[in-house]
Write a structure and sequence with these properties.
CATH architecture of one domain: Alpha-Beta Complex
Number of strands: 7
Strand content: 25-35%
Shape: elongated
Number of helices: 3
CATH class of one domain: Alpha Beta
Distance between the termini: 29 Å
CATH superfamily of one domain: Ribosomal protein L16/L10
């Protein structure tokens, strides 16, 4: 699983964003930089490291030894949670896992070195593992 080796702050403050701000399109990471095919998010969501790993496995199986996969996102935002049946108060919970906040337009994965049909099918299956709507982009 992906998670930071070391963090400056263990716990981040909760984001207080309106849904309109979350749906605002991304400005960075919106074009293909490495591969010929990519998976682009079209709706906002939070990607956990488990979901990224699940999609990566599908892509790496499809590419085999001939292709290459690039992961363009990294989960560095800590999500905290309190244990079950604990009362209110007494501080913030402990870090539970890490996520990456995705806004529409962000390229999540890139793939290269395999045939067009194989690449599109692998990206479609990888997109089914993610909690947002995605589209396949080509160079």
């Amino acid at each position: 699983m992906l998670f930071p080796k070391k963090v400056k702050h263990r716990k981040w403050q909760t984001m207080r964003k309106s849904p309109a701000q979350l749906a605002r399109p991304e400005t960075r990471g919106i074009t293909l930089s490495f591969g010929n095919y990519g998976l682009k998010a079209t709706t906002p969501a939070r990607l956990t490291s488990n979901q990224i790993e699940s999609a990566r496995k599908i892509l790496s199986r499809a590419t085999g030894k001939g292709g290459k996969v690039w992961i363009r996102v990294f989960p560095d935002r800590p999500i905290t949670a309190k244990p079950a049946e604990v009362g209110m108060g007494k501080g913030k919970g402990d870090p539970k896992h890490f996520v990456f906040e995705v806004r529409p337009g962000r390229v999540l994965f890139e793939i290269d070195g395999i045939a067009d049909a194989v690449a599109r099918d692998a990206l479609r299956r990888a997109g089914c593992k993610l909690p947002m709507k995605t589209t396949i982009v080509a160079r």
